[in-house]
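Narrative summary of target 7.
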Amino acid sequence: MKKALMALSVVGLGILSVSSVSAQELAAQKIPLDPAVKVGKLKNGVTYYIKKNAEPKNRAELRLAVKAGSILETDDQQGLAHFMEHMNFNGTTNFPKNELVNFLQKTGVRFGADLNAYTGFDETVYMLPIPTDSAGLLDKGIQVLEDWAHGALLDPDEIDKERGVVLEESRSRRGAQQRMRDKFLKTILGNTRYTERMPIGKDSILKVFKPETIKAFYQDWYRPDLMAVIAVGDFDVAKVEASIIKKFSSIPAPVNPKKRVKYDIPLDGSTRISIVTDPEYPQNLIQVIYKQPNNKEKTLLDVRNNFAQELYNAMLGQRMQELTQKANPPFLYGGSQYGDFLGNLDSYTSVALAKDAASLKTALTALLEENIRVQKFGFTQAELDRAKKDFLNSVEQYYKERDKTKSSSHVQDYLDHFLHEKPFMSTEAYFAFANKHMAAVTLAEVNALAKKYITEKNRAVVVMGPEDSKNALPTEAEIRSLLAGAGKDVTAYVDDVVDSPLLAAEPKSGKVTGEKTLPKLDVTELELSNGVKVLLKPTDFKNDEILIKATAKGGYSLFSDERETGIFTSFLIESGGVGPYNQTQLQKFLAGKTASAGPYISELTEGIAGNTNPKDLETTLQLIYAYFTAPRKDADVASGILANQKAYLGNMQKTPTPEKVFSDSLNAILTSHNPKRTPLKPESIDKVKLDRAVEIYKDRFSDASDFVFTIVGAVKVEAIKPLLEKYLGSLPSTDRNDTFKHANIYPPKGKIEKTIYKGLEPKSRVALVSSGEYEYNPENNIQVEALQEVLQIKLIEALREEESGVYGVSVSESTDKFPSGHYRFTISFGCAPENVEKLVKRTQEEIARIKKDGADPKDIDKFVAETRRKMETAVKTNNFWLNYLDDNTFLGDDLNEIFEQERLLKSITVATTRAAALQYFNDENFIKVVLMPER
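Modeled conformation, tokenized:
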């Protein structure tokens, strides 16, 4: 399990029941696969994986995996593996033209958000979530997979229509990152096919390839011996297996199939260095990649040995994080980790984001020194003990939630098994194995990995920076000198640990002074003696999860003339630690616990957010109490954070990307250039004062009487009351009546059009905004949501499917209640510069059509189906209820509003969508902002 904590699934290990198992014995035992997964293979070669999993209920996750990607393309097929993925949504045997998307939308499946696919170098994967509570839908979903497997029509007219869409997807990816990647990839990988077959392909081929060329790729590689069908969900396994066998057995096995060549990346022992710059790249980045042969897990000894790798990554990650918490950090961000790389390789990769070009050598030196520090002195036993605690705690969490794990998490395990030969153990087996063998992982064993990972052979170094800083970047000779000489004076790591109680004294408990139940919501509302209100919602959605959120009105809006300090206040305080612990010490203190909580101050609110479990609930509440009563100022950490932030903003200002220029310009127009909404600049950081931040923080958290705590999850009301009385009932209270000072900044009225010229690539961005005053209530809100969705559906059909002018189009809506009602619709898309006006005109025509005739009834049905399906699964999650209760309490909305959904959905008609379009797409309040390439 290369990513052990992300690939849990498995069996009881009776084979390991003896008290001690030797390495030789483990090496002789293959990794047992989860017996709850039905794995089979049809005569024609199709592999299938089926698992019953009732989370979420009445849902299934279906996948079709094909071991064919861009690496298999011939010279004249470059980009056609990905193009083939597109064509499977544009006409198959049972779903001609766009009928597939249309059918699935009617069932509540959203195109893009739910229904999707991806193409990589070595594989193509199709993803289909499907409801299972309607007769025949699951069987129909398996039919969709079969159509993808061998029923693509590949109609020449549909191919020609899709060319524009794929070319727009290619256009959207152009920019500094792509240009730089194209420069350094061949240098660091050498002469390998992976540098010649990027999945997006070549525009020159995409524009003119003949239908026969893509049909040849489909016939050669979409074949049963290279395919797997995966089904996980709330269904009858036997029925699903029968459906898969019936449908996929009809696919004929290929006669004289092409050999599926496996391409490798050669290791020649050299150190390869690539220094690349670009006029639109704002940052200074360095990577050191130590390439390693892929380490496949096949036996239980491999699983056991992988523990050491996980622990190594965790401990070095902690050390790297500590470096950024110094007064003068060596980089903005830094990290080192062993993991998958590409093709037949793994890699140990060290990466750092430097403050500027002149600091790249400092950043590289710091990376190398941390690696060498581990090589020379190793980790400490205390570090290892903490990492083991964290690892086992994570494994225990997965174990406790084994019957509440979502189907979407399971399907990835089986994809990895089919595509990459990664085994999938059951959660029970992995839990038992980890607890049995973790203790035997020694410090010497983990320390030895540094010598294995960090070598002078098979290295690659990539430096990326702005074009105008080219002369300040380190040269290849300087990099080789640093590689050869770094770490000579490095000293052993000093483990900074504090062993003190989190709280200096026991809080003096308050009392529950009021209690009422909200039976429809299954919520208990408690009033504590200091004025704190608590909303408790016990759930069984997760076995071991408790989510906490507290909100009060005020925020840094009360200090509007100190906006910059206000923005950074909670971040600076939390980064300083709490009570007797600085941030580094706090993380070590919490090792092995699921206890996280932290303060926040936004413009209008302040509060606390946290997550925990029943076992560590008291520690989490102690942490919350400490953030109220014992905030900690750390001038060195604050200095480092602000210096890094200033450097980052300076880089972005010096070399702004086209996307940032466009975003900032749009923001300025939408906020009437109000200084309270201007993006932060380097000089903004100079206005941030730590001492004032401490004063603001203490002011905002000095009175808990107006805080509402929402607690959702594995809680019992009577059992939690004493803890709430002790830690929340004892919070400071002055009983002041707080509110916020809303800036009341909204888009200006009238018509505004602006064109921004920025960027080297022939690509444009378009934003169309309609806004105005609004009566905020549930009835209007649902009409706005419906209008947003039906317009999104229509614009995808019009701009993508019919005009072939965009890869994607977004329609978003927002409504505000405070200080007065306001709404905003934003339509945005990317396209070719020459198509801007045509696509804007088509967009306006679609809006005009809804204003004249109302929405298509079929689109209304799709919105209703999508909303119902989305809500069915949302209400079975703790996160939904945490945010729903917190948001509605803040807004003063009726908490029972959720039970009005069916009534509200039934209120949507053709007539109401027409009325909404007429009201909210007011031609008198219209903003159009366009990004065009530089002239």
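Confidence is low (pLDDT under 50) at residues 1-20.
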